[in-house]
# Entry
Amino acid sequence: MEVACPHCGKKVQWNERQRWRPFCSERCRLIDLGQWANEEHRIPGDDAQAEDDTLPAGYPDAS
# Structure
């Protein structure tokens, strides 16, 4: 089976011999990882952090 590299679109065989699958190379894999780290890619949805950032009562360091 062939898939397209998520970064550059190059066709890649999907098998155990393809070390960087689904990417065509380590370069494309690292570029993609960097984009996630820089928050250029995001999974849609609400932020995990609550709007009220105060600590619950009884929590250490709570006012």
Observations:
- The longest helix spans residues 26-37.
- Residues 2-37 form a domain with the Erythroid Transcription Factor GATA-1; Chain A fold (CATH 3.30.50.10).
- The radius of gyration is 20 Å.
